[in-house]
Write a structure and sequence with these properties.
65% of the residues lie in helices and 0% in strands. It contains three helices and no strands.
């Protein structure tokens, strides 16, 4: 027969008291990953909510729609594919032009302050 485990004497280990003096660490404090992800996520959300992004999306959509409407969209599968490609190129071009305009305005303002 198997013996049953008996615990006749339970011993508890006492936790050692922590020292009350604190030593300063020489390592610089770094952000934890969760804080860095939160800050990056917040920054991305603020970027998406900025008026510049709204203007870029509007310019791209307007350029794409006008390019698609002006092309031969109803002439078969190949014509539709080319029209969509042209609309994408027009949208990218509109975004590039708008960003160029914004960057040049920022540079002019920076030179004026200096």
């Amino acid at each position: 027969m198997a013996k049953t485990a008996t615990s006749s004497s339970k011993t508890k280990t006492k936790a050692k008291p922590k020292p009350k003096t604190k030593t300063k660490s020489t390592k610089p404090k770094t952000r934890t990953m969760s804080k860095a992800k939160t800050n990056a996520g917040d920054a991305f959300i603020h970027l998406l909510q900025s008026p510049l992004v709204a203007e870029l999306v509007a310019a791209a959509a307007t350029a794409a729609i006008s390019s698609y409407a002006g092309s031969s969209a109803g002439k078969g599968k190949k014509g539709a594919g080319k029209a969509v490609k042209a609309a994408g190129l027009a949208a990218a071009s509109a975004i590039g032009q708008r960003l160029t305009t914004e960057v040049s305005a920022i540079r002019k303002a920076a030179k004026a302050k200096a």
